[in-house]
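The pair is quoted verbatim as follows:
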Amino acid sequence: MSLSGVISTEVGVHSTAEKWFNLFSKQLHHVQKVAERIHGAKLHQGDEWHTNDSVKHWTYTIDGRVVTCQESIKSVDEKNKRMVFKLFGEDIDKEFKVFNLIFEAIEKNDGSAAIKWSVEYERVNEDVHPPYGYMEFCNKCVKDIDAYLFKEE
C-alpha cells in the first residue's frame, strides 16, 4: 500500500467563488470565528496573515479529537482562485511527512460556485490511516462558512 496520496471533496455553495477566495486570501483570520470545529488560530511567525513567510498556529477538531498544527501558505493562484497551505508541526508531524491542504473556489458555468478541498499527503508509516477525517472536517467548515458569507450578502 502506498504511503502517499491525494483525496478531495467538492461542495456546492451559495456565495460566489470570488467571495470565498477573498475570505481565504485576504481575511483568513475570520475563519476561526465562523467555523464550529476551528477553536482558534493565531499568527505564530511573521507580521501578516496572508504572506508566504508567515506561520499560523491552528487548533481544531478532527475525528472527535482536538488537533494542533502550524500552517504556512505555499502558493496563491488568484486567476484560478486556488491556494495551497502546508500543514506541519505538532499533531501533523506525528502522522505525516507531507501534508498540503489545497483550496479551490470554482465558478461553475451556470453561475453557481463550488469549493474543492484536496489533501496531498505522505504518511509516516502504514499504521497511519489516510486523512479522510479532513474531508469531513472541510465539508463541515464549508457549510459553516457558506452560511456566514450568505448572511453577509
